[in-house]
Specification:
Blueprint: H1 4-11, H2 15-26, H3 32-41, E1 47-53, H4 59-72, E2 77-82, H5 94-99, H6 101-104, E3 109-114, H7 122-137, E4 141-147, H8 151-157, E5 162-167, H9 174-185, E6 188-191, H10 199-211, E7 223-225, H11 234-248, H12 251-281, H13 284-295, H14 301-312
Parallel strand pairs: 1-4, 1-5, 2-3, 2-4, 5-6, 6-7
Helix pairs in contact: 1-2, 1-3, 1-7, 2-7, 3-7, 7-8, 12-14
The chain binds guanosine-5'-diphosphate and magnesium ion.
Magnesium ion binds next to α4.
Length: about 325
Amino acid sequence: MNYSTLAKGTLKGDRKAAARLISVVEDEEEGYREAMKIVFCGTRGAGVLGITGAPGVGKSTLVFEIAKSFRKAGKSVGIVAVDPTSPLTGGAILGDRIRMTDLSADPGVFIRSMGSRGGTGGLSLQTSNVIRILDALGCDEIIVETVGAGQTQVDIMGMADTVVVVTMPGTGDEVQSIKAGLLEIADLYLVNKMDLPGAMNTASDLKSMLDLVDDWKGWKPPVLLASASTGRGLDQMLEFIGRHRAWISQPERFLERRSRQARKEIYDLVTMEVHRMIESKFPSVKLDAIVRDVVQGKLSPYEAAEKVAAFAIR
Ligand SMILES: Nc1nc2c(ncn2[C@@H]2O[C@H](COP(=O)(O)OP(=O)(O)O)[C@@H](O)[C@H]2O)c(=O)[nH]1
Ligand SMILES: [Mg+2]
C-alpha cells in the first residue's frame, strides 16, 4: 500500500490522516516506512516531555494539567499514552479517556494511547514514529506518558527532551526504581500526592539518593512536591520543566542528545532490517537445518549466527 497521501495529509495538519497513519505504523503495514520518510521531512522540532512512573501515582492527572497550561500559552499539544502492559491495542485506557474528555474536544489537542501491538520494531520504535507524526502534524508540545516497565520505558524516555519521574508517598519504590535505571533518564523527580502523609519523607529519601551521585554534568535533577489533583506545586514543576528545556536547548547539548537518540534509532532500525531480511529471504528449510545442527551439537550457535548474518548482509 502507498500511504504517502496519509503522510502528506499529516503535514498539512489533517488529524484524521495522522490518526490513520499512526495505526498503519502500529501495525507495521507494508509501506509505512516510505510514509515515515515523508513525515520525517515535515517535522518541525516539537518539544517532547516524558512523564513516567508506576501505575496510579498520578501521571495522567499531571499530563492533563500540563497540557492545559500549554494550551493556555497558545501551544498545540500532542499526548501519547504508552502502556506496554496494556492488552488494549490502539484504544485508550478507559480511566485516562474519561479524564481527558474535556481536552479531547479541543482541536488543539491530539490524544493517542498505545498498547503492546508488538510488531518486530517494538514499542519504542513505534513511539518514536508516533512522536514524529504528531510533530509533523503541527503539535508544538508532545507529552509522552509511560508506565514504569523496564527497558522499554527507558528507551521511550530516551526520546524526550525532558523526563519527569513521578512517584508518590508510601510506595517505598523510589529507591528501587532509581536502581532500576531511572537515574539515567530522570531530569526531574516529582513526589505527587503531597496532600497524603509521608510526602516530605519520600522527597528527602529521594534527595539523599541523589546526593550519592557527585557528577551530574551540569544538571542535578530537582526533587519537587506537588498535588496534581489540587493543583498545588504545579507552577513550580512547570517552571523547572522550562528551566530544563532552556538548559537542554544549548546548541552543543542539544546536538549531543539528538545524536545519541539518532544513533540508537539507526541501530534499532538496522537490527530490525536484519531480522526482516532473515525472516523474508532466508529459506526456512535452510534455517531449520541450521537450528537442527546446533541442537545436535554439530554446529555452535556462533558459527550458525555467522552463517545467517553472512547471508543477511550479502
Ligand atoms: N490524593 C491525591 N490523589 C491524586 C493526586 N493526583 C492524582 N490522584 C489520583 O490518583 C489516581 C491515579 O491517577 P492517574 O492520573 O490515573 O495515575 P497514573 O496511573 O499514574 O496515570 C486517580 O484516582 C487520581 O485522581 C493527588 O495529587 N492527590
Ligand atoms: Mg495513566
